[in-house]
Batch of 3 targets.
Target 1
Amino acid sequence: MAEEESVQIEEGPLPFPPEWDARYPQQGQTVVDAPPGYITLFEDFFLEGNFRLPATKFMASILHFYGFHISQMSLAGMVRVRHFEFLCRSQGMEPTMEKFRA
């Protein structure tokens, strides 16, 4: 019988591909300590808001239309946008700003 490889599950930040050069905060750092050129995204966006990277074109259109940055989006707003997008896609429809705003 072949030996099974043990899988280690790490506690802590969500894993991102190395080519994204994600930086994780050190103990004691806050969101305002992000280095220049980096943004802060909260773990809740991914776990509770179902946000995924890379973001969809629909998400980009929402941000562009309302004129704000992803780091300014609330968790409740993220859930609302993603829920709408899932509903459209489950019905075979492409989500658009026009449908979202109807």
Target 2
Amino acid sequence: MNNKPREIVVISGKGGTGKTSISASLAYLSKDCIVADCDVDAADLYLLLNPISIEKHEFYSGHIAKINQEKCIGCSTCKNLCRFDAIKEDSNGKFSVEPTSCEGCKVCVEFCPEKAIDFPDRLCGEWMKSETRVGFMVHAKLGIAAENSGKLVSLIRSEARKLAQEKGKNLIIIDGPPGIGCPVIASITGATDVLVVTEPTISGIHDLERVVSLANHFRIKPYVAINKFDLNLEITEKIEKIAKELKAQVIGKIRYDKLVTQSQIEAKTIVESNIPSAQDIIDMWEKLKAN
């Protein structure tokens, strides 16, 4: 495959808007894509797609201090200098580093008079290549209190592109993280399309404006999906007006559907369950394909 694959990134201004459910449904409808879960801080796409891992790799980023007990003389220099209260002293007067508190600033390493503090790479999580019923998937799991999720997101997208090239796929569907921070920027940079999922609430309007503005800043074509649009038709109308002003096409309006919860309990995508809202997503997918 010589052409760059189309990358559709599904994002939202906050969590809980239905972003992952929609991503999984689009992947199921495509039948011929690579799936990437870039919401690495709270990865849950696997719950719907039940991936079977074929490759697993450790993810290292940054460093963490570690006190060498054989060299340490208990002078407490490190404890006195640590701004993050990461150095702990036990009842025997021995010092150690609390991993979840260490920011990797290296101050303790530089000022230890005995050079008793090592500074190894920090293991932050793992990333995987898997097979699912909708195709191949690249995803990750960030460790507890681990950081650099933006770097991990970039890695996931890079591996998804490589896999698309290897398998001859011309579409990558990415379940992106919520918000507008570093992980989101890492998810959408260089993508071809952004699908912003919002809801008809006051906060939904605010989130939409932030996320669409971010997509416009990076000159990525934004589309909008209004989930549960029929819960507040007045605000839905406002969202459509704002989207038009921001040059974002409202490409889908998905009704509120109580049966979505049952679909999730059964670990099925919405479109597999043949429930009322499934047709709304199918209609949206047909429009996405045509654009």
Target 3
Amino acid sequence: MDRTALADFLSRHRDALQPADVGLSPGARRRVPGLKREEVALLAAMSTDYYARLEQGRGPQPSTQMLAALARALRLTGVERDYLYRIAGHSAPDSVAVSDLVSPSLLRVLDRLNDTPALILSALGETLVQNDSARALLGDVSGYSGLERSSVHRWFVRPETERWRYPEQDRDRAGRALVSILRSAYGSLGPRSRAGEMVGDLLERSAEFREIWERHEVARRFEEHKTLIHPEIGPIELDCQVLFTEDQSQTLLVLTAPPRSESDSKLRLLAVLGTQTIGEAR
């Protein structure tokens, strides 16, 4: 680990960003040319003290999870992300595998979506980033790790965390859609990828998954309209818009409701409620 190089790299990339670049308000007159340390720490979901020590060249070796979070916060390109990993003493992530590096172009769009639920998903259904509105609607999924980061995996292994969001009559369709997306990823990434690991685990643990998997349904799209259930507000009818990266490895999913509709009013109410009751519903 090259602490000096890491400290300088983080500092320079922080200085190169403006609050508007990452969806933050500039606030009062600023004394620093770019982002503040506490702003980077907030974006990366780490303590300001921890981040400050990294910039001062005296912090511990960051984990790959921490580095992925910093790459997202600093809007690094793939080459820059790989360099960050190497100077921090880690091997760069496999460029062929599903990556936690969020597409900078999708992040720029997400940063500008404040009043409607929006999230960025990997090809395996892992939520890489979600805005506050998405957390209020769907809950904060940042606490999951391993294969459980994928909503596909949770749907079959921990159904109590996912299926309550859908009306009972829609659950069969939703499960088949999730499997078809996983099969698309499996076909692209191969059996030795994380997609292959997930398929093997689900085939062993879920008879329902095995039955759907054998249908060989393949898709890389999302329903144009769906109904989601919030534990406090009830059913919300939503339209789904999606934006894919060029290689279709990541998806920006935006959930909207027609203006002045009942569902639009419910989304506005969610902005007030936030995530304060989500955890109680699980």
